[in-house]
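#struct-pred
JK: can someone run the complex with magnesium ion? inputs below
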Amino acid sequence: MPARKTQTAILPLPPDELRELYRKMLTIRIFEETVFDVYRKGLMPGLAHLSDGQEATPVGVCAALRLDDTITSTHRGHGHIIAKGGQVEPMMAEVMGKVTGYCRGKGGEMHIADVSLGILGANGIVGGGIGIAAGSAFTAKREGKGRVSVAFFGDGAINQGILYETANIAVLWKLPLIYVCENNQYTEFTNYHKLTSGEGLVARAKAMGMNALEVDGNDVLAVYQAAHEMVEAARKGKGPATLVCQTFRYGGHHVGEPGTAYRSKEEITEWKARDPIPAFEKILLNHKVIAPSDIETMHDQIHTQLQEAVATAQEAPFPEVKEVGEHVYA
Ligand SMILES: Cc1ncc(C[n+]2csc(CCOP(=O)(O)OP(=O)(O)O)c2C)c(N)n1
Ligand SMILES: [Mg+2]
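RT: done, C-alpha cells with the ligand placed:
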C-alpha cells in the first residue's frame, strides 16, 4: 500500500502554526546534532538514541494535540518531547546528568518526563509506554473532557504483547488512544521485514476493529492531517486508531555505533534525499509562508539557544549522592 502523502495546493494550518512546525523540526535536528557533539566531547554519561531524520512524525502528530492531551515516548524520545512543548535547556541538562535537568539528572536521556505538558515519559522498555498510554486514555475517557492519549512506539514494538492486549480493550471500550508507530525500518540492527509477519500493523489494527492508516512519516503535513482526523474522531468518542509513519533514522541505533554495518550506503542516501526538513522548507517557501532570511535567522537562534543550554548545563552541579533514593516512585 503506498504511504499517503500531503496535497500541498491548500495548506492545512495558518502560517504562524506552519512556521512553528518548521521551528520544532529544526529544533529537534539541532538538538540531536548537539547531543552527538556533547557525547563526542565526553560531556555526558552513557549513550544517547538520536532521532535525526525522523522529525516530521512527532511534530506532525503533536500539532494535532492540545496541551492537556498526553503522550508516551520511547528510548528515542527527544523528538516527541520537543514536539509536545518540552524545553531544550532542562532536556540538555538531563542528558548531561545535571541537577537542573527535567529529572534532576537522575533519569538520563531515556527517561525525560514533564507531566505538566502531558509528557508522561520516555521509556527504556520497548513497548513500555503503550500500557501507560492506555491507562491515560482510560482516565481521559472517564473525565469526559475530550482529551486523547498518544502512544509513540517503534517498529520494534509491533510484536510486543502489550500492543495487542491494550488494543483489544481500547476498541471494546472506545478509548481515545492513538497508536503511532514510527517505522524507521530497523529494530536495533535488524530490518523490519525480517521481524514482522503478514501485511504489517495497519492490517493487524484493522483486523482488531480500529481505523488504521500508513503515511509518509517524512511528510509533516501528511502526518498532521492523518493524526488530526484520528485525534478528532477519538475526542468524539469514536475510539482508538493506529497511524504508521514510514521514516528513517540517520545515525546508528545509539551514538556509539555509526549505523552503517547493517544498512547499505544506497539505502541511507535514498532516505537522506527524502529529508523531512528541506522538503517542508520547499513547501513553505513556495507558499511564501517563510522567507529564506527567516530560515537563516531561525537556524542561528536555535544554534545559539542550544550552545547556551550546553554551557549552562556544564556549569550546573551533578545531583548529590544523598538524594539518590529521592524522587523514586517504584
Ligand atoms: C522489552 C525490551 N526488549 C529489548 C530491549 C532492547 N532494545 C532497546 S532498543 C531496541 C530496538 C527498538 O527498536 P524500535 O522499536 O524499532 O525503535 P528504534 O530504536 O528503531 O527507534 C531493543 C530491542 C528493550 N529495551 N526492551
Ligand atoms: Mg525502529
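RT: quick notes.
Residues 15-313 form a domain with the Rossmann fold fold (CATH 3.40.50.970).
The chain has a mean pLDDT of 96.
JK: thanks, will look after standup
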